[in-house]
Amino acid sequence: MTEMATEVVAEVRGRVGCITLNRPKALNALSLGMVRDLMATLLAWQHDDKVLAVAIRGNGREGPFGAFCAGGDIRFLHAAGSVGNPQLEDFFTEEYALNHLIHNYGKPYIAFMDGIVMGGGMGISQGGSLRIVTERTKMAMPETAIGLFPDVGGGYFLSRCPGRVGEWLALTGDTIGAADAIAFGLADGFLPADQQAAVWEGLGTQAFADGAAAQQWVASKFVAAGACQISARTQIDQYFALDGVSAIVAALERANDDWARATAATLRKRSPLMLHVVLEQIRRARAMGLADDLRMERDMVRHCFYLRPGESETLEGIRALAVDKDQNPAWRPARIEDVSPELVQAFFKSPWPAHAHPLAALR
């Protein structure tokens, strides 16, 4: 196989393990093969004394950088979920185990989060020890638009954003840029996009005493990210602290300002069922460690596909967005006000006894 055909290009340059996601036409959306390649690479380097640190980037359509990772391969999820392909189960189990490994890696893991960083792209970057954003970064967890929830540890890292930012990002799926990502604790520093290549090259050619020195050298290149774009922090904390989704939307719809009206309109387009599930997820996850959150999310994603045979919100959401592209999902229930608490709670009942859970080994 040629290097260009490889979806994950991994090489040790100097004392740094360098990973390039190489599926540019799909904005580096993660396939099961990519998840497995990343896991194998990181496990091989974890205890290799020759590798002091790891750096990861995405290939864009014009070459390195420009697109980090748009998430999981939702077309694969739709195809596998529609026919009961067991690789669907493998994908989520192995992806979440990969997310856990990155958070607990033990060596610096430096993520160049340029361009699109969404869904699964957040999963392979949020656990990093240094998360770099640029003026091109577009960050989001947009899963409620496809009848899913912010998984890959989203409950864990979104719930730890300041105030009620986690609820807002999880429910709306709104996109943020570099300065907001840093302010919300979802990135560590800003690097102008045109300086990334030089820093990447330097990681492979500089002599570093240890991994910490490599990370400190990259951090020394950071510059100010500029002003935050989100001016609605007070409103976010006010509305998204309310008791439930119905209360949040009702209050937004009563408000007399453009931000509140636009936010309510966004929420009305999302899966009503998954909005309720996601609010519960974020609030439960605030009190959880990462391993417990990932186990909870593994339960939830199983239910997204199999709790209601023939009525999967996720399959319907992906169909409307990416398969038929009619942008007109038939959500069930159709209204936020019609979702029963019993249906929401069913997503949090594990289909496995604790000892047999696919992620039982995570600590």
Automatic annotation (TrEMBL):
Protein name: 3-hydroxyisobutyryl-CoA hydrolase
SUPFAM superfamilies tied to this protein: ClpP/crotonase
NCBIfam families for this protein: PRK05617.1
InterPro entries according to UniProt: ClpP/crotonase-like_dom_sf, ECH_dom, HIBYL-CoA-H
Hydrolase is among the record's keywords: yes
Pfam families named among the record's database cross-references: ECH_2
An example molecular function term from Gene Ontology annotations: 3-hydroxyisobutyryl-CoA hydrolase activity
Species annotation: Alicycliphilus denitrificans (strain DSM 14773 / CIP 107495 / K601)
Domain Enoyl-CoA hydratase/isomerase: 16-348
One GO-annotated biological process of the protein: L-valine catabolic process
EC number annotated for this UniProt entry: 3.1.2.4
UniProt keyword Hydrolase present: yes
Keywords annotated in UniProt: Hydrolase
